[in-house]
């Protein structure tokens, strides 16, 4: 299965907290999220699991955590994955968490994310395609789902989510600037190396042509040959 | 020119209508249409609601029933035609001559369009479909140049619809057996080219290997964009060189030549991609709506910003401009 490089997103900063969070708490959050999704978007589960129930491994490349997702019309399941589960799931989807969330809400095109290699898929492609199509057929709104799951505290949760999104966007902006500051000197150097390599490739090609022309002129004509144009060069 | 847009789900149809489609085309959830992917397409009830929604917004709906009926199972295709008429779609897109005759005999008032799957690319073929079955529009195969389309339009009595954006197909639409050879299932009979159940991706170090059935279709380096593994877009080795021998994984985009297509007498532009998500539909349909509106105002819009949505993340004007000739 996939061994991906971590994606440079603000979710990377959450890893120290996730690593140290009590396992029971993480499991409970996952269970609660799945119960909310199942309640709000039951047709998705019915449509995907029409033929069979199956499990996927969801691997956000910016989190030190993988998720085991079981798609079942009546008893779906979401929980942190254990190591052995790579062998038992039908497929694995890997990618940065923001991209996975956009896919879930249908705000990004799954094929485009895949073509650009933002997302990677291994295993039974048809199940991933069926899930993608079913999700895309619904209008999933995570903000509303989160707010609803807090019941009476919904408006407060929505406000907290809004604040979290604002902080996320600021962090993303700052991290992009940091990444640019760190990589731009190397990128500039690489660009220079590439330009020099391209110029040298052109020079090399011209030298090779010259050598071939010289070989044609200096090589003795084979006896009986009408024209030496058809003879192979001595050192092709 | 009419903007004909794809929808694989009711949500996509809503997205297409909101983004400015003149027409949305879709299919039933079975082998009667050429995008028979898992979890995709419309039930009868969903199509009924979709037609209601589209008509409310002044948008037409076409039903694609464009695969070839399997011997002994024609009833499924006949029922699709009957149901489409009963639901009130504005046109049915057909390819098979037996099915065209069925539609003509049982629903003489239905508007029939000829699918690209019929591969009608010359005057005589198009005249035949028009005279025999009353076909009122033909979707032209992606083999014709702009000049050929112009000439054709001057000589035929029916409307023409051309592909404007999306995945390309090798130049034998409706007659291709490559998928069938590799997987036992074909777009012509089963409604799906290179079915997902036969597709496998494997991450091998920094490379991604794509397979279709038992065939390795491509091995992508870490800096290359990935494509869907169809045999026609595979990278093969021949005469000590490896490359895309049939077709590169690239997408059609005619944004830069919309005025020329209008001038050539084209009636409608088709966007490919019923298998794509609603985000793709919103962006592509929105971009073409803007371009067409600009042209209608006498402004030219040559820039396209859609390459990130394309397979291979690159685009071409295909056979419309044959730069290789």
TrEMBL record, chain A:
Recorded superkingdom: Bacteria
The portions of this protein that span the membrane are none
- Where are the residues of the annotated region Disordered? 213-236
Q: Which InterPro entries match?
A: SCP2_sterol-bd_dom (IPR003033), SCP2_sterol-bd_dom_sf (IPR036527)
All copies of domain SCP2, residue ranges: 61-136
> What protein name is recorded for this chain?
Lipid carrier protein YhbT
TrEMBL record, chain B:
Question: Which is a GO BP term held by this UniProt record?
Answer: proteolysis
Q: In which pathway does it act?
A: Cofactor biosynthesis; ubiquinone biosynthesis
The cofactors named for this UniProt entry are:
[4Fe-4S] cluster
The region called Disordered is annotated at: 303-325
Which InterPro entries does this one have?
Peptidase_U32, RNA/ubiquinone_mod_enzymes, UbiU
Question: Where is there biased composition of kind Polar residues?
Answer: 305-317
Q: Mention one GO molecular function.
A: metal ion binding
What keywords tag this UniProt record? 4Fe-4S, Hydrolase, Iron, Iron-sulfur, Metal-binding, Protease, Ubiquinone biosynthesis
Question: Which top-level group of life is the source organism from?
Answer: Bacteria
Binding site residues for [4Fe-4S] cluster: 169, 176, 193, 232
Q: Which family does it belong to?
A: Belongs to the peptidase U32 family. UbiU subfamily.
Q: What does this protein do?
A: Required for O(2)-independent ubiquinone (coenzyme Q) biosynthesis. Together with UbiV, is essential for the C6-hydroxylation reaction in the oxygen-independent ubiquinone biosynthesis pathway.
PANTHER family for this protein: PEPTIDASE U32 FAMILY, UBIQUINONE BIOSYNTHESIS PROTEIN UBIU
Q: How does it assemble?
A: Forms a heterodimer with UbiV.
- What's this protein's name? Ubiquinone biosynthesis protein UbiU
Q: What is the species of this protein?
A: Thalassospira tepidiphila MCCC 1A03514
The beginning of the lineage is: Bacteria, Pseudomonadati, Pseudomonadota, Alphaproteobacteria, Rhodospirillales
The gene for this chain is: ubiU
């Amino acid at each position: 299965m996939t061994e991906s490089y971590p994606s440079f997103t603000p979710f990377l900063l959450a890893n120290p907290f996730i690593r140290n969070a009590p396992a029971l708490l993480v499991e409970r959050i996952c269970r609660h999220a799945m119960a909310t999704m199942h309640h709000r978007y039951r047709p998705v589960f019915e449509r995907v699991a029409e033929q069979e129930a199956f499990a996927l491994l969801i691997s956000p490349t910016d989190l030190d955590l993988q998720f085991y997702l079981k798609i079942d019309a009546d008893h779906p399941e979401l929980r942190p994955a254990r190591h052995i589960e790579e062998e038992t799931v039908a497929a694995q989807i890997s990618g940065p968490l923001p991209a996975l969330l956009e896919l879930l809400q249908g705000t990004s095109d799954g094929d485009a994310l895949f073509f650009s290699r933002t997302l990677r898929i291994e295993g039974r492609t048809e199940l991933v395609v069926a899930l993608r199509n079913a999700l895309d057929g619904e209008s999933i709104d995570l903000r509303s789902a989160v707010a609803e799951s807090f019941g009476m505290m919904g408006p407060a949760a929505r406000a907290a989510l809004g604040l979290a999104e604002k902080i996320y966007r600021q962090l993303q902006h700052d991290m992009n600037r940091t990444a640019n500051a760190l990589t731009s000197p190397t990128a500039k150097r690489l660009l220079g190396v590439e330009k020099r390599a391209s110029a040298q490739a052109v020079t090399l090609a011209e030298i090779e042509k010259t050598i071939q022309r010289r070989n044609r002129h200096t090589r003795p004509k084979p006896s009986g040959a009408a024209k030496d144009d058809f003879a192979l060069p001595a050192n092709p | 020119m009419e903007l004909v847009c794809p929808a694989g789900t009711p949500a996509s149809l809503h997205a297409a209508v909101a983004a400015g489609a003149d027409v949305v085309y879709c299919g039933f959830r079975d082998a009667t249409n050429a995008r028979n992917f898992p979890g995709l397409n419309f039930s009868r009830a969903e199509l009924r609601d979709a037609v209601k929604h589209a008509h409310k917004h002044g948008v037409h709906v076409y039903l694609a029933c464009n695969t070839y009926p399997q011997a002994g199972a024609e009833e499924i295709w006949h029922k699709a035609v009957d149901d489409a008429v009963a639901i009130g779609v504005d046109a049915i897109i057909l390819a098979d001559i037996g099915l065209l005759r069925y539609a003509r005999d049982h629903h003489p008032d239905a508007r029939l369009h000829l699918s690209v799957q019929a591969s009608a690319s010359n005057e005589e073929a198009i005249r035949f479909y028009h005279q025999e079955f009353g076909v009122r529009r033909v979707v032209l195969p992606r083999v014709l140049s702009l000049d050929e389309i112009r000439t054709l339009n001057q000589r035929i009595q029916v409307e023409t619809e051309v592909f404007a954006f999306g995945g390309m197909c090798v130049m034998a639409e409706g007659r291709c057996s490559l998928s069938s050879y590799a997987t036992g299932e074909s777009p012509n009979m089963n409604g799906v080219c290179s079915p997902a159940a036969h597709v496998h991706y494997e991450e091998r170090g920094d490379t991604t290997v794509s397979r279709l059935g038992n065939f390795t279709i491509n091995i992508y380096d870490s800096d290359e964009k990935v494509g869907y593994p169809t045999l026609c877009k595979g990278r093969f080795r021949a005469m000590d060189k490896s490359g895309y021998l049939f077709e590169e994984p690239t997408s059609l985009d005619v944004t830069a030549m919309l005025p020329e297509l209008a001038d050539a007498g084209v009636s409608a532009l088709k966007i490919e991609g019923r298998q794509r998500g609603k985000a793709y539909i919103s962006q592509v349909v929105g971009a073409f709506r803007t371009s067409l509106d600009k042209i209608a105002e006498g402004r030219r819009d040559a820039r396209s910003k859609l390459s990130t949505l394309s397979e291979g993340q690159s685009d071409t004007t295909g056979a419309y401009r044959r730069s290789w000739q």
